Amino acid sequence: MQNTRLTTLLNRTGDNIQQQLRNPWRRLALMIIALLFGIYLGAALASTAGQVGYIDIVASALVAIASEILSAIFYGNRWNFQKTILGETLNALKVGVLYGLFLIAFLLGS
């Protein structure tokens, strides 16, 4: 890739964001935001699938498959994904989605 002003700007911006997220408090805030967004996403997914009615099984299968794949990547020792910011954020998002789905299921009593 050529070293243009745009690529230099994007590389510096990415490096600056990574440097800012190394702070433990900002990292914790990012994890909390990802968890809360996951809860919102789980509730939105449940209400959307419930309104349509015929994609309940497909949506639940996709969530289960995505959760298992993400868990295999996160907890596997192959890529050391647990120590990265992206890995921790995706795991918090996954936990939030599953918690949101369980919360909606308990609210509906099913």
From TrEMBL:
> Which Pfam families does the UniProt record give?
DUF565
Assigned keywords, A-Z: Membrane, Transmembrane, Transmembrane helix
Q: Which InterPro entries match?
A: Uncharacterised_Ycf20 (IPR007572)
User: In terms of domain of life, where is this protein from?
Assistant: Bacteria
Transmembrane intervals = 28-46, 52-77, 89-108
The UniProt entry's sequence similarity note says: Belongs to the ycf20 family.
Q: What is this protein called?
A: DUF565 domain-containing protein
Q: What is the lineage of its organism?
A: Bacteria, Bacillati, Cyanobacteriota, Cyanophyceae, Acaryochloridales
